[in-house]
Amino acid sequence: MSTLPACPQCTLENTYQDGNNYVCADCGYEWPVQEAEQADENAVAGVKDANGNILNDGDAVVLIKDLKVKGSSITLKVGTKIKGIRIVGGDHEVDCRTDAGNFMLKACYLKKA
User: Which of 3.50.90.10, 2.20.25.10, 3.40.228.10, 3.40.190.10 is the CATH number of 1-45?
Assistant: First the structure.
């Protein structure tokens, strides 16, 4: 099995290393080896809550701060317990469902319950 990462542009695994770069044989995209190694380290670190605990899919969390929902008059109150979170990529790491609806939240406003 190959230890080379999949192409970040086309997501195919037909890649090879050429000097200090990885190259995708299918789409021709090149990216630095160091950048790929840093991405792997960040993925291993996981998503951490406000207290530094690693969050996993299905965990229950509690809000540590009142959060105003952009574009709405809804406010998620401090102490609200949210069950069954899902970890996703991007700026807002946690996808969840509350009584007020479905939201994507930043992990820095949550603590593991």
Answer: 2.20.25.10
